[in-house]
From TrEMBL, chains A, B:
This is DUF1993 domain-containing protein. Gene3D superfamilies: dinb family like domain. It comes from Sphingobium chlorophenolicum L-1. It holds the Pfam family DUF1993.
Length: 168, 168
């Protein structure tokens, strides 16, 4: 009856990334329709010292794939963080989705209480897999998807909550 | 080993609301320090046709308490949505936290596959408790907490990701 760790992660990240892809498609269509340089949207920031839209997609991607790699003890899947255009960002999302779809359920389920370490410039954070998902990966993933939505919504792209929630 | 539904919900919402409270305290302190009318912050919007900061807190509160009420078959806990000031918003968060702390684990665990219905102006959405949490309540809750963060961050309040993630 309780929720297996795979069900708590892979399908959740997949839905979020598919919704993010649809949101970015609406951003690109809006730029084309209004004659806006698409790079002004992909480089948009909420404030000068906050990361731009491109980085929000990179961080969402990294959060999802990093969590599964750490939990499953899987090989790293490096991505270069060089995306600039909407097409680049779609490719990043597609690669992240393809990786998530390749994660074997048997490498994830039952790992709930296994220790994982998140290495950051601010030091190492130690979690169980469950607390890593609930206390870091999930909120961090949604932070970056929501911030991407916010940047495009603020720029005038016609978006609504259902674009974010998707597949409800 | 898998995750019980209570652990997937109540402590997650509690941490998010406590972090949201700390973020709002920083917003109030910033307004005081800079001589800004606090209501210009609590009424801030990302764009004219999007809900203001006050509503972001109300929606985060409603999402958390609504999910637990639906899943647990608990009595409604109406809140009037009349908050204007930072103090009002803190009180709303405190009341929501007090309710969540009162939710009995035995009314939640094991309800994973029970059907719940979300009534909205756009029609009714039917879920299992698990899909309601993973596909609606969790992303919607983080959407509103992140948007609250974004509004204050954009207004110049000194906030960083750790204010949002908190208790990592």
């Amino acid at each position: 009856m309780a929720t297996d760790l795979y069900d708590l992660t892979v399908p959740v990240f997949l839905r979020g990334l598919r919704n993010l892809s649809a949101i970015l498609h609406k951003g690109a269509a809006y730029a084309a329709e209004k004659g806006i340089d698409p790079l002004t949207l992909t480089q948009a920031r909420l404030i000068a010292d906050m990361a731009p839209l491109t980085a929000q997609i990179q961080y969402a991607s990294d959060t999802a794939k990093g969590a599964m790699i750490r939990i499953g003890g899987l090989d790293p899947v490096p991505m270069a963080d060089t995306e600039q255009s909407f097409a680049d960002l779609q490719e990043r999302i597609e690669k992240t989705i393809a990786f998530l779809e390749s994660v074997p359920r048997e490498r994830i389920d039952g790992r709930d209480d296994a220790v994982v370490t998140l290495k950051t410039p601010r030091g190492d954070f130690t979690f169980t897999s469950r607390s890593h998902v609930l206390g870091f990966a999930m909120p961090n993933f949604y932070f970056h998807v929501t911030t991407a939505y916010a940047l495009l919504r603020q720029a005038g792209v016609p978006l609504g909550k259902m674009d974010y929630l998707g597949g409800i």
